[in-house]
Amino acid sequence: MRKIIALHIFLAAYCMASAQESLITSINQEHLNRMIELAKEHMPQREIMALNEEKAKSAANAEVVNYLDLLNVSYFYRPDERAALGMENPYVVNGFQFGVNLNLGSFLQKPFQAKQAKADYKIAQLERLAYESELENEVKRRYYVYVQAFNELRIRSQALQDNKALSDDLQFRFEKGEATLNEYAEAKSAVSEASSAKLEVEVNYLVAKDALEQLIGVKVEDVK
Questions:
Q1: Residue-range definition of the domain harbouring residue 217
Q2: Low-confidence ranges of the chain (pLDDT < 70)
Q3: Residue 126: CATH number of its domain
Q4: What is the C-alpha separation between 197 and 35, in angstroms, rounded?
Q5: What is the pLDDT of residues 75-103, one digit of tens each?
Q6: Which residues pair with 76 in a beta bridge?
Q7: Does residue 36 belong to any structural domain of this protein?
Q8: pTM higher than 0.70, yes or no?
Q9: Cα–Cα distance between 36 and 136 in angstroms, integer?
Q10: Which residue in 6, 43, 87, 174 could disulfide with 184, CB within 3.0 to 4.6 Å?
Q11: Phi, psi (5° rounding) for residue 95?
């Protein structure tokens, strides 16, 4: 009977090792890609960086328009038969007048300001891309941990069921006098150990699930 218990424990360990080896086959790439999209939509830091990028882009475009600050356009109106010069109308002619106000310092700074604005825009773009890459890797990492915990929980649950079945069988045999008290006690102990192991894995599973849902903003079960 001890050989049966030992064989049962060996088979449980073998199943667990086999499940770990097949972790890659448990990866649902479609779900993973959807989770990455949800994380990008959910995380506020990514939205902040997108707004900073848009702000930097607007500043870069504004620097081009700022060259028009060097020009000014005015229109003066003098009614007919009104003196060309006077307190009410000190202008000689009617119509538009164009002028150029050239501040040499400001003029020379314009190219550098435009270049700086373009550089700021590029930096904002790269920061957003870097953050999205880090976010994508973090979603993948948490998803892999979640899948591993899910598989372990499934294995531990099956092991607990198997141990309970063996314990029940040994109890029946013990009551009929076909198994020793020591064998029956070992089976009960195996059930207790399997139950404790399952509880520990359940905690790991819940922690992994919560960590993943924190990034994607929805329940894992709701990911379509």
A1: 2-67+104-222
A2: 1-22, 62-113
A3: 1.20.1600.10
A4: 30
A5: 555 555 555 445 555 555 554 455 555 55
A6: 95
A7: yes
A8: no
A9: 6
A10: 174
A11: 105, -165
